[in-house]
Each structure stands twice: as C-alpha cells, then as structure tokens.
Amino acid sequence: MVARARWSVLEIAFWLAAAATLVLLPTWHLILNEIAILALFALSLDLLLGYAGIVSLGHAAYFGFGAYVAGIIAKHGITEPVTGLLIAGAAATALGFVTSFLVLRGSDLTRLMVTVGIASVMYELANKLGWLTGGADGLQGIVMGGIFGRFDFDIRGQVGYAYSLTVLFLLFLLARRIAHSPFGLSLVAVKGNALRASAVGISVNGRLVAIYTLAAGYAGIAGALLAQTTQFVSLDVVAFHRSADVLLVLIIGGVGYLYGGLIGAVLFKLMQDWIAAITPQYWQFWIGLILVLIVLIGRGRIASWIAPIRMVANALGDRLTPWRSVPAKRS
C-alpha cells in the first residue's frame, strides 16, 4: 500500500504543468477555470463509478444543488467565497447522504433510474421555485466578495482559475488518500464482488453510503465553484446533459484511477471548444465519433501505446530520486 501511494514522476509533472498554466496561459484562464470545475465534477463521479461501481445518470443533482446554495447564500449576504464553498459542500453532502438510501436500493438498473429520478426532481424544483432560484431566468444578482476578503475576482478569470485549481488540488489529495487507504481497497472489493466482500466482514452498505455521500459533496463543491466564479446560476446546472457530459468525460479519460476524470476534462473541453469553433452545429457529432473510435480501438490497446512513455518516465524518476526505490526498513 505504501508503494502504491507514492507519487510518480508523471503525477508530479501533471500538477506542475497545471500550476504553470497560471503564468504561461493568461488568456486561457476562463476556459481553464471551466476545465478545473469539470475535472472536479468528473472526479466526484469517478469515486462512485470507478471505485464503488455505482453508475449514475443524475449526478448533476448535487452539482446543481451546490451551485444554487452558493448563489442563494451569496445573494443573502454571505459573499466570502470559501465560506460559501464550505456551506454549499456541506449541503450537497447532506443531500447525498439522504438520497443514498434511495439510490442504493435494488439492482444496478434500479439505481441508475433512481439517480435520473432524483436529478429530474431537482430540476423541477429549481424551475418551480422561481422566487428562490430565479426559475427559467436563472439566479441573477450574485455579487461575490474577495477570497478571504483580499483577492477579488477579475474579468480575465485569473483569480477564479487559481481559486478553482487550488480547490481541485486539495480535494484531489483527499481523494487520492482515500483511494489508497484500506477504505478505498474495500470499495474495490465491494465493486468486484459485494457478496464475497460481505462474507469477509466488510460492511457493504456502509461503504457505499459513505462514498456516495462523499461524491455528492465533491459534486456540490464543483457546482459552487461554477456559481461563484461566473456569478450566475441557471437551470442548466441540473439538466440531464450535465450528467451525461461528465460521464463522457470519464469514458474519454478512463475510469478508476482518479486522473481519468482530470485528463478527460481537459480533452473534452478542448475538443468542444476547438470543434465548436470549426463546426458550431455539429461539434457533438465529432465528439461522438471520437467516443466510437475509443470503443472500437479499445482502451487497453491505447494504454499499450503509451506504456513505453510511462516506463521511461518512471525509470527517469527512480534515477533522479533513488530514495523512492529503496524499501523502508522494518523496525
């Protein structure tokens, strides 16, 4: 477990490259902020799908709930972003805990349909409660203060992107720690065979409720980031396509290793922006075609193409940091 939890050279390079974009790509901060938020949203779904095997087509319910909570409390005086983020995350976590007992009942197909039902209920509530959410016109008039009262959001998106990237990194550290803990390994066991996991003493329902609650909180924080950095919330945040898009992100990036959601978010958003600039009406066709090619080629074959690059990078990392390859001495 200690060896699995060690940071690889590719991981370190990934986050250094992400930090470098703050300085090297100043004109891209707005779209990079969207990528960071989408990556956090995809990370939350990967905790469900990749580690617990729970397929959800209604994960936008928690994303949108977090966005609305952050926007509503900002309109009523709580304009400090970090405070609002914590409140929105706690609210989404509570909603995830309550609804987890509904979602986890029955078979996989039943769970899938219940997630769709929860998202549909949230959409209708947001639409009907216009006095609170703004309804079809959206929640307008959100004015955010500075982060910790010092760093104000700017029109170029520099502060917003740094804020979103920092939150993404901190929550990724937590998710990575959970994935490499005994709790994370027990989730993998439950995903592989729930009956066998129960036979060896693992509380299957307890594990699933815990990870579903955590994933809902992550999604709510992602939604709150979107509301705070754009200072607007619409019904789009709880729409069905929001849940479908994040599932496509995981398909593109890969499921079950945390970085799949991050890499998929980068590829999906850049493809969407680039293809939409060429063919605004048919960008979804080309993304769909790419997904079909991924399925036809096979993710295993694609992984074998990049395996030599990973081997070279890991070997270089072991040479530069020889202490990493030396096993710890037992006392």
How does this model look, in words?
The chain is an all-alpha fold and 331 residues long. The chain has a single domain, classed as ABC transporter involved in vitamin B12 uptake, BtuC. The chain contains 15 helices and no strands. Helix 3 (29-49) crosses helix 12 (240-253) and helix 4 runs antiparallel to helix 5 (81-103). The longest helix has 27 residues, at 204-230. It is globular and about 55 Å long. 37% of the residues are buried. The mean pLDDT is 85.
Q: Which CATH class?
A: Mainly Alpha
The total count of helices amounts to: 15
What class do helices, strands and sheet pairing give?
mainly alpha
The proportion of residues in beta strands is: under 5%
For the record, give the distance between the C-alpha atoms at the N and C termini, rounded to a whole number: 18 Å
Could you outline the blueprint of secondary structure elements for this entry?
Elements: H1 2-5, H2 9-24, H3 29-49, H4 60-75, H5 81-103, H6 108-128, H7 130-133, H8 158-179, H9 182-192, H10 194-199, H11 204-230, H12 240-253, H13 259-278, H14 283-297, H15 299-320
Helix pairs in contact: 2-8, 3-8, 3-11, 3-12, 3-13, 4-5, 4-6, 4-11, 5-11, 8-11, 9-11, 12-13, 13-14
Summarize the structure.
By secondary structure, this protein is mainly α. It has helices at residues 2-5, 9-24, 29-49, 60-75, 81-103, 108-128, 130-133, 158-179, 182-192, 194-199, 204-230, 240-253, 259-278, 283-297, 299-320.
